[in-house]
Amino acid sequence: MKNKILILIGTVVMAHSAFAQTVNDVPLKEIDVDYIQIIGTGRTLSTKVNVEIDFGQETKSVSFKNGTNIKDEKGRNMKFNSMMDALNFMSANGFSFQFAYTMNDEKDKAVYYILKKNK
User: Which of 38, 48, 77, 81 has the greatest count of CB atoms below 10 A from its CB?
Assistant: First the structure.
C-alpha cells in the first residue's frame, strides 16, 4: 500500500513539474513554433536580468499581467543570473541558440537571442 501511495505522489509531482514553467499560460515544452526570441534587460539595483520570450503570442497592450515573462510553477516571474543562465535554461527546455544581437538606444537597451526549437 505504501508503494502505491509513493508511486501516486511521485507521478503527481513529476506531472506538475513537467508543466512548471510557462509563458502566457503555455508550458514551455508545448510552445508550437519553430523559432522564439528571448529578450534580456537589466534589473534596477540588481545583477540579475529580466527575460521575456516572444514566440508570436498575442499580448494585451493594456494589462498588468505580462504575457511574455517566464513564470514558475507558482506563477511568479522567473529570475535569471545572466543571459547565459537564461540560454542554458531554454536549452534544457528544448531550444537551441541560433544568433544574438543587441539594441542600445535611448529607449531600448537589451540583448536579443534567437532560438530554434529542437525537433
Answer: 38
Nearest to 50 by CA among 64, 36, 34, 66: 66
Q: Can you spell out the DSSP letters for 23-87?
A: ETTEEGGG---SEEEEEEEEPTTSSSEEEEEESS----SS-SS-TTBEE-TTSPBP-BSSHHHHH
Question: CA quadruple 110, 39, 58, 115: dihedral positive or negative?
Answer: positive
Name the residue type at position 49: V
Please state the domain extents for the chain.
21-117
* Positions of the chain with pLDDT under 70: 1-20, 22-24, 59-67, 107-108
Residue 46: C-alpha distances to residues 41, 43, 49, 71, 95 (Å): 11, 5, 8, 19, 27
Instruction: Give the pLDDT confidence score for residue 4 in this predicted structure.
Output: 52
In angstroms, rounded to a whole number, what is the distance separating the alpha carbons of residues 20 and 15? Answer: 9
**Model pLDDT, residue 6:** 45
